[in-house]
């Protein structure tokens, strides 16, 4: 690959970095709120729990979902069912790996409804924020680029 093509690709990616970050941040906070409301309940320590869980979820999303999101956004599709299926599969693996690393839990976790619920909730939330924040921005940028290229010709 020529250097100018690589620079052009990196420049296009740097334009989307804030949207990747916001997608990651909002997904982490939303997932933490859902996890706490569904599994732990509300109490006076809920805000502290949301902050702590958000940090762990942010790291997990950063390691597992962000690289996948960058790859999938090469060909952006807003609210794509295929992307939701891919995110769900990745989150089944990610929740299992994180749980094994943190708790040294045996593999019987896969059969529990909590495991399935967490994986699906995390995937849907990340997919929604990706579609709302990033896909709209990528599609708009691509349309502007296509219009600009058409005007140049």
From TrEMBL:
Keywords: Membrane, Transmembrane, Transmembrane helix
Organism placement in taxonomy: Bacteria, Bacillati, Bacillota, Bacilli, Bacillales
Identification of the protein by name: Uncharacterized protein
Transmembrane segments: 20-44, 50-72, 84-102, 108-129
A Pfam cross-reference name: UPF0715
Organism from which the protein derives: Heyndrickxia shackletonii
